[in-house]
Amino acid sequence: MSLVKKIFIGYLVCFAIGTGLLCSFYLPSTDIVKITGSEVKRVDNDGPISAKNPADGPTRDVYYIYTIDQNKKIMVYRNEDTGWSFPWYFKFNSADIQAQAQSANDASQLTRVVHYGWRFNMVNMFKNIVSIKPIDSYDASTFSFYTIMKYLGWIVWLLLIVIQAAIPTLYTSWRDRRDLKRPDGSVVK
């Protein structure tokens, strides 16, 4: 295999991994949890404002929702509007979602949480809630047709890129076959 092909395959693998990570981060996922509490914190670009981290720029209120799942795993979500910016969830109802979360907490209600993002404790990064809905049991489905379609679309998109990149190579190898060349070196059309 030539060096150019190895580099191309390396770029293609890095591209596939990168787009897969972006899809995993920005596309919605679903959890079934019990809400245990919620609060509002004033934050800036450096995180929550405190004595150690004074406000040094524009600030905003961010809602936090504390949950526990059926395996007693604790998860903290943030509930912040996306507005008109990326990712385009056009979420303007974080206060309404916070009210729903507080009422579910008071009623000890199980809740289906739709969110995007990842949770990293070390960098103070939280999943952002898109919507919540009360449910009856942990047996409720977390199946999402949209989730299946997003990954199928991603796979089809990667296959189209691979096919588009492979067509010139296939065409060149077909054209260079010996049995299609005349003795004088010209190609039979």
Topology (elements, then pairings):
Layout: H1 3-26, E1 29-44, E2 47-48, E3 60-68, E4 74-79, H2 94-106, E5 110-116, E6 127-135, H3 145-175
Parallel strand pairs: 4-6
Antiparallel strand pairs: 1-2, 1-3, 1-5, 3-4, 5-6
Helix pairs in contact: 1-3
Structure description:
The chain is of the alpha+beta class and 189 residues long. It is elongated, with a radius of gyration of 25 Å. It starts with a helix and ends in a 14-residue tail after the last helix. The protein has helices at residues 3-26, 94-106, 145-175; strands spanning 29-44, 47-48, 60-68, 74-79, 110-116, 127-135. The chain contains three helices and six strands. Helix 1 packs antiparallel against helix 3. It folds into two domains: 3-22 and 147-178, no CATH class; 29-142, OB fold (Dihydrolipoamide Acetyltransferase, E2P) (Beta Barrel), CATH 2.40.50.110.
CATH architecture of the largest domain: Beta Barrel
Structural domains: how many: 2
CATH class of the largest domain: Mainly Beta
Mean pLDDT: 83
CATH topology title of the largest domain: OB fold (Dihydrolipoamide Acetyltransferase, E2P)
Low-pLDDT stretches are none
Count of DSSP strands = 6
| Main beta-sheet strand count, sense and barrel state | 5 strands, mixed, barrel
Q: Into which percentage range does the β-strand content fall?
A: 25-35%
Order of strands, main sheet, comes to 1-3-4-6-5
Overall outline: elongated
Label the structural class: alpha+beta
Distance from first to last alpha carbon = 29 Å
Helical stretch count?
Answer: 3
Order of helices and strands: HEEEEHEEH
Gyration radius, rounded: 25 Å
The helix content is 25-40%
